[in-house]
Design brief:
The chain contains 5 helices and 16 strands. The protein is mainly beta.
Amino acid sequence: MRHLFRPMPGFFSSRSPRGREASRCAADVQSGIFTSTLCPDPWLPVPGRHLWAVRIVPAERNEQMMPVPSHLRGLVVPLESAIDEGALSATVRCLCGETRFELLYPGQTHEHAGEKIPCTAEVEGHFFFVLKSRCPGCAREHLLFDADFHGWNGLVCHDPAKAALARPQLVAWLCQCGEARHTGVVRIQTEGREEFISEAGGRFDADRWPDAFGWFSMDLTCARCGRESRELVSYETM
């Protein structure tokens, strides 16, 4: 079973797409594309792995991002329009146009850097991680992420028996000020089209590569006090 862990803010595991990209593109530091720092990451205590953190600071340039995964089309607005295989950053927006929402999660948390953050929920020996947005304007709920259906494991390694289990009850995430309404940005990192075709070739249409993303994270900003929670959610899907 994969371990759920939270990287240090602004850092990426060398197993994540951006971490691997930074490692491969060390030469780009000399060309001014990136400035980077490579250092041991004590915040990623994953048994059996030696992980590193890569801090990436892109130079001023137009970002290119992966296409929006199919389950989020119409529910998020990309911050950039250029399409490539770079990480996607997109604002959460209801179909009615409202950008504020309540983040619904399974209710279990763990502490990171002295703060509680959402984590996987264990229910009768099964682990779930589900996120929905609930619009305060029209009250519609939208599925943002379900580890059993979305990302690499949810698609390429889909487990029908696990996916058929009832989803856990969800509750609203509250800011420290007690507010449930937030605005937010979804960030998704892809494994890339070629890797998807290589690993899952023949079983899926090649155009579904954005659905087999490797990392899902979210930033939230409280609609009342303005408190920002960088990477409140950070989940590796592989």
